Amino acid sequence: MDANLKNRLKGILSLAYQQDWNDESFSVGKAQVCAELSSIVYEDVQEYELKKASRIHLFASETYRSLIANHTVNSILDGLGEANLDARFFIVRGRYALVLGTILNDVVILAIRGTVFRELWDWKANIDAEKYYVYGSPHFHPFDYGYVRFDDQFFHRGFFESVIPQFASISDQIKKRQNSGNELKVVWTGHSLGGAMAAVGYAIHGARNTRIWLAEEIPGHAICAYTFGMPRYCGLGSVCNFPGPHHIYRKNDLVPTVPLRKMGFADSSKEYELTDTGTIGLTERTDTFGLAGHVPKLLSSIKAHSIEGYAELLALATGIGRP
């Protein structure tokens, strides 16, 4: 394993072990851990990606963009299982998603990014999004009002179809490495399109043990999700009925503004603005400028959207510095 990567992982794991993962509330420290792991998954570049680099991924990570420009294959994740580190790792390479699993005693962090096998990873698909409607049983709604059906209870079909098929492999990998008698706590995370897939994965995993069965059961309890600069991934009905992520965004980041609200897509119920000075707070987004308003914002958004920018500002927010 590359020495620099090993030292970075040591720093990330040290920070992760300092967090109270039993507390499911928002934590800037946990957000920093998740941002760093979400950054690392961009640094694994396979041969096919050099030939068919995703435009959205070139937009999402400075490191990924550099590797593609230099035609560099970088299979950094394959050697993590043999690394002498205070954690266990696994990789799930699906057709449409790459998942890095990090197991810390009884905590599992799943960091996700998309691959480049489909047209989903383009702006057109984010704007012209298909919907996958999901309805539950008559006891689906948590309040005792009988059967409540929401017309906008849907997920972005592309994100849904990309992450749900990975549940079986994720479950298998966790079971192979589970050696704690305590119930596992599972954290989902990702940036950009990976954040949207993490949000969908968390929603289905969190609802899986109580009221809905749409996928292979993943061991453990889905305690939270931290996403960064993610596009809208569902309608308001799904926001109301499924657990949602802590979504961290930057004001000049274009990606969280698509698909458009006028198409029925909604913001996450927990939105945190990360400022350029490193402050972070729960807010309500007000991007109402419409499709034409995206054009002048595009250039400033390229830098604002990078995962490295999110990681740097979160390090500033915690005062710890990047690993």
Provide structural commentary.
35% of the residues lie in helices and 19% in strands. It is α/β, with parallel strands linked by helices and 323 residues long. It has a single domain (3-318), classed as Rossmann fold (3-Layer(aba) Sandwich). Strands 1-2-3-6-7-9-11-12 form an 8-stranded mixed β-sheet, sandwiched between helices. A two-stranded antiparallel ribbon has the order 4-5. It has a two-stranded antiparallel ribbon with strand order 8-10. A hairpin with a 5-residue loop joins strand 11 (270-274) and strand 12. Helix 7 (157-163) packs across helix 9 (193-208). The protein is globular and about 50 Å long. Mean pLDDT is 84; it is low at 138-146.
Annotation keywords:
Lipase family protein; 323 residues; Fungal_lipase-type; single chain; 12 helices; alpha/beta; 19% strand; 12 strands; Rossmann fold; Sec_MonoDiacylglyc_Lipase; AB_hydrolase_fold
Regions with pLDDT < 50 over 5+ consecutive residues? Answer: 138-146
Please name the CATH architecture.
3-Layer(aba) Sandwich
Tally of distinct domains: 1
Cα end-to-end separation = 17 Å
Q: What is the topology, as strand order, of the major beta sheet?
A: 1-2-3-6-7-9-11-12
Helix content: 25-40%
Output the structural class: alpha/beta
Q: Identify the overall geometry.
A: globular
Give me the CATH fold name.
Answer: Rossmann fold
Count of DSSP-assigned helices = 12
Give the overall average pLDDT: 84
Question: What is Rg?
Answer: 19 Å
The CATH top-level class label: Alpha Beta
Q: What portion of residues belong to β-strands?
A: 15-25%
- In terms of quaternary structure, the protein is single chain
Strand-and-helix sequence, N→C?
A: HHHHHEEEHEEHHEHEEHEEEEHH
